[in-house]
Amino acid sequence: MAIPRPESGILNRLYANLFGSSGRFVSLDVPEKILKRLYTYGSITNTDEGLQFEVKNRLQDAEFAGVNRLAINGEEISEDRVRLETVDESVHRLDEVDGENPLSFPVGRTLYVIVEGMELPTGDHTLDIEFVAHPFGDLSLSIADTIRDEEEIPSIPRRDDNNFTEEAIQDRHEFLEETTNVDLEHIPHYSVDPEEDLEGNIENFIGVAQMPIGLAGPLKVNGEHADGEFPIPLATTEGTLVASYSRGMKAINLSGGAKTTVTDDKMNRAPVFVFEDARVARDFREWVFDHYDTIKEKAEETSSVAELVEIEDYMTNNYAFLRFGYKTGDAAGMNMVGKATFAACNWILSEFPGYVENFYLDGNFSTDKKASKVNDLMTRGKRVTAEVTLPEEVLVHHLGADPESIHHHGKVGTLGSFFAGNTTNGAHPANGLASLFIATGQDEANVAESHAAMVNTTLLDDNSLHVSVTIPSLIVATYGGGTGLPTQNEGLEILDCDGPGNVNKFAEIAAGVVLAGELSLASAISASDWVTSHEELGRNR
Question: Which residues are catalytic?
Fold first, then answer.
């Protein structure tokens, strides 16, 4: 017998949960693939007090209202043998938790489940759990997990109470000496206070990499946010790099400075929703757009800074990729937008009247730390342009190349980049960005996205040359992450860019640095000075 589908409202949602979008009966309110994410795989272990495993809420805020059945390897476990512990060390007996006395289970909370008096051998085991959670109702899942012989797995020494003490650090130094026969001489010398400065930036700390920092410039910037002459700290081990960038900066200064413009600002997270077919995915997309205002509200509740500005949709097969775009203030914002998007998606999953077969917070469409065409078109981070018009005499007498040759090389280089499948037609945008990033505490892996610059040259009637660089996905910060570390913060202080309110200023300076590097290397190649410069200044001499 066919059961007619209600048109709207809670009955429609109930129908969808019971029968799915096609009307076929399904047994779970929450898809099993999503529900299994409550369990932390690899967490099952024997302890002095019994068998332990972890459950973490990765879905949405809920209340845990008791277990109807718990079986391990088919053996039924009575409630009075089980206790629950939270990360704040509060303890709850399982037989004391029920619908009238539920346990708060917000997103991100981990519950440690301890079955007292039970010990299992190493190998594979199965857990069957039937439990109640509001607002989901009765749920069940079956898990297969493995207990491994931890003594056979090498591990780095760490201390759970405080892993940044001198004793914890010394443990790791001794471990290295014993396992590698390396007696550390340089790495352990640092000026930071590990306990005060490093938590949240590094794990299993052993010391620092002492990267040389050189000073390039100064660089004259005529921007809307950066206006003045800035000495540029560059951390690198490549001989000629600082000298080359200084040469380009001098050419810019002789031409009046770099004009810089931030044209867009948007950090993204792109979840993907999986459906039975493309038609349901399309209907889901329309529902999301109809509820944009509420989704925006749910996302922005997670942060005082994040501002959702748009949701882009990209549909393929039975998948709906939604690219959430945010303004993130002075932070690069990847974690911020992840948290905001997670909250928004939890609301979507709980309220959408159809059936979502699966969901991932990121389907690799955010292109985190990967160059991509969607970034070129739609922006990720800051989209910023730096440009300068260089008189013929500056090009000839300072850079040693005539305007026409640089312009022609630019056309040839663009064709070569297209032919090779490059992500930029620039000569080496990554060089200056990587050096600047390391010196100022940026996430250095973001160079993978940020380097995808687009360079253009225009030969003018007076034989001057207009050169511009657009970086469509410059991911930078002046607050949060590594920017607060003492050494890196000093790098930002040199640029007068430390702290809130300076991210666009820093973005304009960074674009000017890239422009300087493009001018210098393009001129060296055009004038056949590239190899001789490395022979003179580099380590290969």
Answer: 238, 443, 534
The 10s digit of each residue's pLDDT in 51-73 is 999 998 877 788 888 888 999 99
**Global pTM value:** 0.83
CA atoms of 356 and 323, how far apart (whole Å): 18
How far out from the chain centre does Cα 109 lie? 22
User: 129: which 2 tokens?
Assistant: 């759990």
> In angstroms, how far is the first alpha carbon of the chain from the final one?
85
Q: Read off the pLDDT of residues 481-538 as tens digits, 9 standing for 90 and up.
A: 999 999 999 999 999 999 999 999 999 999 999 999 999 999 999 876 544 444 555 5
In Å, how far from its chain's centre is CA 20?
34
Q: Which of 353, 360, 359, 361 shows the shortest CA–CA distance to 290?
A: 353
Tallying the residues shown for the chain, one arrives at 541
Tokens of 124: 């594979």
Compute the distance between CA of residue 537 and CA of residue 455 in angstroms, rounded to an integer. Answer: 27
Beta strands in 9-165 (DSSP E): 45-47, 50-56, 62-72, 75-76, 82-86, 91-93, 103-105, 110-116, 123-134, 137-147
What type of residue sits at position 127? Answer: L
Q: Write down the residue that tokens 């109640």 correspond to.
A: 132
Region label for 240, one of left (φ > 0), alpha (ψ between -120 and 50) or beta (otherwise) = left
| CA pseudo-torsion sign 417, 422, 426, 432 | negative
